[in-house]
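Extended Data, panel c. Modelled sequence:
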Amino acid sequence: MIFATITIEKLIKAHKDELHKDAFIHSAQGVHYTSPKLLKENNLGQSMSRRGNC
């Protein structure tokens, strides 16, 4: 499993009931970050930096 996915799963497991309804994850644009399935399944929004802007 990819590190980014593991981190999101840990967040959801530890704080699912505490997350704001409009919570979102901000990340880079790598393919392991841009796959929105896990976020959509858990009602989390997605935000990404522009290319070259770490």
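The beta strands are 24-27, 45-48. This feature is highlighted in the accompanying rendering.
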